Amino acid sequence: MHLTQSTDLALRVLMLLGARDERRSAAELAESLRVAPQHMAKIVQRLRRDGFVSTTRGRGGGVVLAGGVTDLPVGEIVRVLEGPGEAVECDSPPCPLRGDCRLRGALRAAQEGFLASLNRVRLRELVADPTGPVLLSLAPPASAGAPSPVEEGL
C-alpha cells in the first residue's frame, strides 16, 4: 500500500511532537521536516480536525499532541488520515470486470493486513530509541518568540 504524502508528513509531525512534549509552531515543524510552511499549515489543520493535535494562537501558542495520541495504534492513525478509500477504484469509470473479478477483494484484504500490521505498533514506540534522539535533533527546544504568520491561519 502507498501512503499519501500528506499522511506521511502527518505521521512525522506526530512523531516530532511525541518526541518532545512541548508546543511547536507550525513554522518550526515545517523547518524541521523541510516542507513549505503553507503545506505544514494544512497538515496541522488536518491533524487538529481529526483530533490528533490541539493548537493555540498567539504568543506562546503552537501545536501540541492531544491527550492519549501516543497510545494510539499507528494503523488507526493511518486509517483516519487516509480515509475510507480503497487501493483500486472499480466504479469510476466502471470496470467491465467488477462483477467477476477477485482483484478488488484481494487488494482489500491486503490493505486490511497492512493496517493490522501497523496496529501492532503504537505511536509512542515510534519515538523511542533509536529514533527519539534523531527526532530531538530535528526539533530544537521551542522558541519563546512571537508566532509565525503560519500560526495566524490556525
UniProtKB/TrEMBL annotation:
One of its GO terms (cellular component) is cytosol. InterPro entries: Tscrpt_reg_Rrf2, WH-like_DNA-bd_sf, WH_DNA-bd_sf. GO terms for molecular function: DNA binding; DNA-binding transcription factor activity. Keywords: DNA-binding. Its cofactor is [2Fe-2S] cluster. It comes from the Bacteria. The keyword DNA-binding applies. SUPFAM superfamilies: Winged helix' DNA-binding domain (SSF46785). The keyword Cytoplasm does not apply. This is Rrf2 family nitric oxide-sensitive transcriptional repressor. It comes from Actinomadura coerulea.
